[in-house]
Design a protein that fits this description.
alpha+beta; 41% helix; 24% strand
Length: 135
């Protein structure tokens, strides 16, 4: 009887280990897909993609010092800053880094490529952007 009980426990343990769900590593954020979706949305709302737009990239980090450093380096590569703001609810410091550019994937990606090396990934959030509709 002990052998049957022991065998049953071993089988249950093996079965439990074999069926345990493993959470996959989160995949990196797909900026190209998100950028293209936002461009399409702005065009649907009436924006003329051939016109120059004032595009603002939003930066959210854990410290004011990080945001201030990003701003100072972003100005060197052609961005203007709008503000530094602390969100008590989100516990993040934020800024908007803006530049004039055409509303196409190539230009948005080019400006993002200038900005991303300035942003520490371990303490800052995903960088989003926005623009007003330009007819």
């Amino acid at each position: 009887m002990r052998k049957i009980t022991l065998l049953t426990l071993v089988l249950i343990s093996i079965c439990g280990c074999a069926t345990k769900q493993i959470n996959p590593e989160p995949s990196p954020f797909n900026y190209l897909e998100a950028d293209q979706s936002l461009i399409e949305l702005l065009i649907q709302k009436g924006s003329n993609a051939k016109k120059v737009h004032w595009v603002s990239f939003m930066v959210d980090c854990k410290s004011q010092q990080q945001v201030a450093e990003i701003i100072s380096r972003a100005k060197v590569v052609g961005f203007d800053d709008d503000y530094i703001f602390y969100s008590e609810k989100r516990k993040l410091w934020s800024s908007s880094l803006s530049a004039y550019m055409k509303l196409n994937l190539s230009e948005i990606s080019s400006f993002r490529a200038k900005l991303m090396p300035l942003i520490p990934s371990n303490s800052c959030e995903t960088v989003g952007w926005g623009a007003s509709v330009e007819m």
